[in-house]
Amino acid sequence: MKLIYKGKFDGNYDNLPYREHKPNYVKFKEASNATELAIKANIVAIILLILLLVIAFKQGNYLNNWGILLSLLSLFPHEFLHAICFKEEVYLYTLLKKGILFVVGNEDMSKTRFIIMSLLPNIVFGIGPYIIGLIIKNNVLTTLGIFATSMGCGDFINVYNAITQMPKGTRTYLHKFNSYWYMPN
Length: 185
Description:
alpha+beta; 6 helices; three-stranded mixed sheet
């Protein structure tokens, strides 16, 4: 994996890296731009945030400022964990005005690897600390988990799309802003 930091995303999807489409490719039914994705992800994030807060409060765990700070500090490491799941070049972009950081890599991935790539940071910074925090009654870990999990909602949407749209044996790849799948020969 070679990570290339591209800086602020200029909003022009044609400037994102891409390669030629595979034969018989199918575009995922997903957000067509960053704004649409942000709106969908924020709706899911609010629902998830409320659910995780209710569970934590019922367990006697409360919000902690250090946990909130740690969740914000996990933004770039979150994207790095996505990036290490790629074997080839991967590009990191920021769109902080809309609260978005993302990586783009153009290599093919199996459905399983795509799901792992999408979930890895959410497990490491979100779900894992949340569960551990609940078990050991640590408000910092629980708070980190709550906010890091809800900040990863765009990834959960990608996983949902892969599970519901990719037939068995297909491979996926990114092309500019969107995901596509195809059946290899």
